[in-house]
Design brief:
It comes from Amphiprion ocellaris. By secondary structure, the chain is α/β, with parallel strands linked by helices. The chain is built from 14 helices and seven strands. The N terminus is likely disordered. Bound molecules: adenosine-5'-triphosphate and 2'-deoxy-guanosine.
């Protein structure tokens, strides 16, 4: 019942989005007409849809809901997008903070864990509307069979929202190599977590088919707005992640077993190292991956920190 409702909400979002996209096309066409219909692309006047296609080939980004000037579009297209992937507690947030402080051309977007821990809903009991808060992360860990599908719909939606956020002005004005860095992505949502939950039997075959269907639809509809140019894979043995998970002591993760981290490690290896996971998006199949040994302690060691930053800089520059 709940799954059907979530599917329905997502479906409504997509059809609204389609309408918005159509409206944007019409608006762009009217603006193009009013400006005399001349956009420099060689010597010919080119309709906006054709320019859009040409720009897509050159990997230029298009605004989702408002029209940006050509130079703003070009500035946006210069911003590269990279996700940090890795097992639970491997050190992504810690590494992300290091990147954030290392270079003003890099903007790090944290995984929205606190949103998953605090889902507000309005209920009307009696006459007064009441607000209740639920912790979906905890619900998922306590009863994965009941809540995994719901969790994946919400985690994926929140990751999508993060990946759709426009770059800040400082990145648009950057003269270096501006990069938006995401802690995980809509791709790890599917190819690590949802897949793992399916393989564990916590997501059933129907839920998995439904998840994959709307995931593909969303990724295809948003196109290059949610594409990544690269992935940083923080790699460490599951045992090391378990040590760190225990040290961190997040309440919801108390029941997490080494076996679960082992399985997630295998999913990361299949996707990012062996490349044996079946991937459904062409660009993602060829994406460059920077692998870093995250088992080393870099927080207290400035030499290791510098080595990491240099590797990341070289990786970004080559994208
Ligand atoms: N290189 C490191 N060496 C030693 N300890 C580390 C290192 N990186 C992170 N830690 C510690 O490990 C714990 C988990 O780190 P962190 O929260 O960054 O992991 P994460 O990958 O972001 O976790 P999650 O998957 O839950 O988002 C923290 O207590 C952190 O201080
Ligand atoms: N089931 C499941 N699916 C996801 O997409 C997902 N993404 C993160 N997590 C869990 C790992 C950490 O405990 C915590 C913070 O990363 O949330 C997930 N769990």
């Amino acid at each position: 019942m709940m799954s059907a409702l979530y599917g329905c909400v997502l479906f409504n979002c997509v059809s609204k989005l389609r309408k918005q996209t159509a409206l944007t096309q019409v608006r762009r066409f009217v603006q193009w007409k009013m400006s005399g219909g001349l956009i420099r692309a060689g010597n010919t006047a080119t309709p906006p849809t054709i320019v859009a296609m040409a720009n897509r080939k050159r990997n230029l980004s298009f605004p989702s809901s408002r029209c940006l000037s050509k130079s703003a579009e070009e500035a946006k297209a210069r911003v590269k997008r990279v996700s940090i992937e890795g097992n639970i507690a491997v050190g992504k947030s810690t590494f992300a903070k290091l990147l954030q402080s290392a270079c003003s051309d890099w903007e790090v977007m944290a995984e929205p864990v606190s949103k998953w821990q605090n889902i507000r809903s309005e209920t009307s009991k009696g006459t007064e509307p009441q607000s209740t808060v639920s912790n979906l992360l905890q619900m998922m860990y306590q009863d994965p069979q009941r809540w995994s599908y719901t969790f994946q719909t919400y985690s994926c939606m929140s990751r999508l929202r993060t990946q759709l956020q426009p770059p800040p002005a400082c990145l648009l004005n950057s003269e270096g190599t501006p990069v938006q860095v995401y802690e995980r992505s809509v791709y790890s949502d599917r190819y690590i977590f949802a897949l793992n939950m399916f393989e564990l039997g916590c997501i059933n075959t129907t839920e998995w088919a439904v998840y994959q269907d709307w995931h593909s639809l969303l990724v295809e509809q948003f196109g290059h707005q949610v594409e990544l140019e690269g992935i940083i894979y923080l790699r460490a043995p599951a045992k090391k992640c378990m040590e760190r998970l225990k040290k961190r002591g997040r309440a919801e993760e108390k029941g997490v077993k080494l076996d679960y981290l082992d399985k997630l490690h295998v999913q990361h290896e299949r996707w990012l190292v062996e490349k044996s996971t079946e991937i459904h998006f062409e660009k993602l199949k060829q994406i460059p991956v920077l692998e870093l040994d995250a088992s080393v302690e870099f927080k207290s060691d400035p030499v290791v920190r510098e080595q990491f930053i240099t590797k990341v800089k070289n990786f970004f520059n080559a994208l």
